[in-house]
Design a protein that fits this description.
Layout: H1 30-58, E1 66-73, H2 79-88, H3 95-104, E2 114-120, H4 124-131, E3 141-144, H5 151-160, H6 167-170, E4 199-202, H7 208-223, H8 229-233, H9 238-251, H10 258-271, H11 278-285, H12 294-297, H13 321-328, E5 337-340, E6 348-351, H14 354-370
Antiparallel strand pairs: 1-2, 3-4, 5-6
Helix pairs in contact: 2-3, 9-10, 9-13, 10-13
Length: about 375
């Protein structure tokens, strides 16, 4: 009996073995999927944050800024403190990033104290370049204003020093200074008397308005320290005291005479007498040197204190502190008259007697005639 070649049962077809089925990988759990997504999202956030941080730090599209901002950097200030100051003034956008940029650039220890001119909206690099470079030493000039100078005299001095602008215009009024608070009437439209005489440092060609501002600040610092008890008791305002101080400044050549001249003014005001101070008329005429003529002495002006009672309408000079003190606190003496003593280096002779005053006046006129009409006040 025949058999199959493979030894299988007769008539049976040969079977091909089935290929092995591929094994399926187990699906990740939902937890793992969430973790992977969170990691991917975190990586994206980190990349975006790094890009934003770098953009904010290096500011590729920030220019050199606009406008002008003056910034004073104190000695010993840290980079973060400086950055916060700049951010507050709109110079840079962030004090934090300014600090970081200073650290990266190695500029944290290079800041220079001083006043700098910056711009609004500057890049950190531009601001750092300015603030780590010592500012040029500003050239200054000294303007010394003598005590007793008038606005016109100060204007000529300011012009000679090369300051820009009109001093006469700038000294009519000033922003932030209210002369009405001192009792100045509304009819007065200038700051004569308030322009404190001293030495001021200014830059070449600086505006006269800056000088006026410095003078007004110095005036407040000096005048406001006075006691006005005596003046109030006499019915005088602070502006009246300033007017008296301006006359004292012009009349008293020697320090010892200041409080005595102020006393004469107080005494004559109390007695209802005219003051008879020729310096007030000289101020009106703009002439402090030439002898007054009879026609000038008869001029009907409030500044002619020979014929008008009371104080002149405004100060006749810008007095210093010593004359201010004398005007606020005059000497306690009964004098009503004074006159320059001939050949006494500007010293004044005081008296309560009109007859003695006339005698002194005669001696003065005789000495002036002997000097050829010139003032006989020089020292022997």
């Amino acid at each position: 009996m025949a058999t199959g070649e493979q030894g299988g049962p007769p008539g049976a077809a040969l079977e091909t073995p089935a290929p092995p089925r591929p094994q399926r990988r187990p699906r990740p759990s939902r937890t793992k999927i969430r973790v992977r997504r969170a990691i991917a999202l975190l990586a994206l956030v980190v990349v975006l944050f790094a890009g934003w941080f770098a953009f904010e730090l290096f500011q590729p599209f920030t220019g050199s800024g606009t406008g002008s901002v003056s910034v004073s950097i104190p000695k010993g200030a840290s980079a973060r403190q400086i950055g916060d100051m700049l951010a507050a003034d709109g110079v840079v956008s962030s004090g934090f990033f300014f600090d970081v940029r200073a650290m990266l650039d190695g500029d944290r220890g290079k800041f220079v104290a001083g006043t700098f001119t910056l711009r609004r909206g500057m890049s950190y690099a531009s601001a750092l370049a300015v603030l780590t470079t010592p500012p040029p030493v500003a050239t200054t000039i000294r303007v010394t204003i003598p005590e007793g100078f008038t606005r016109k005299q100060i204007a000529a001095l300011a012009s000679a020093k090369g300051l820009s602008g009109s001093y006469l215009v700038a000294s009519r009024r000033a922003v932030g200074f209210d002369p009405r608070s001192y009792g100045v009437p509304s009819s007065v439209h200038e700051l004569e008397g308030f322009l404190f005489p001293a030495t001021y440092d200014v830059t070449p060609h600086e505006s006269v308005s800056r000088l006026v501002g410095q003078q007004l600040l110095a005036f407040e610092q000096n005048f406001n320290q006075l006691s006005f008890t005596r003046a109030r008791a006499a019915g005088l305002t602070k502006y009246d005291v300033l007017i008296i101080a301006s006359m004292v400044e012009r009349e008293a050549a020697l320090p010892r005479d200041r409080a005595l001249v102020a006393a004469v003014i107080y005494n004559r005001l109390r007695a209802g007498m005219t003051l008879g101070i020729d310096a007030t008329l000289r101020y009106y005429l703009g002439d402090f040197t030439h002898a007054l003529t009879q026609s000038e002495l008869a001029l009907d002006t409030p500044y002619n204190t020979r014929i008008h009672r009371g104080l002149p309408p405004t100060p006749i000079s810008n007095p210093g502190l010593a004359s201010m003190i004398a005007a606020a606190d005059p000497a306690s003496v009964p004098y009503l008259y004074y006159l320059t003593k001939p050949g006494a280096c500007g010293a004044l002779e005081f008296t309560t007697s009109y007859a003695q005053f006339l005698a002194d006046a005669a001696a003065y006129n005789a000495a002036r005639a002997k000097a050829g009409g010139r003032s006989p006040t020089t020292c022997p």
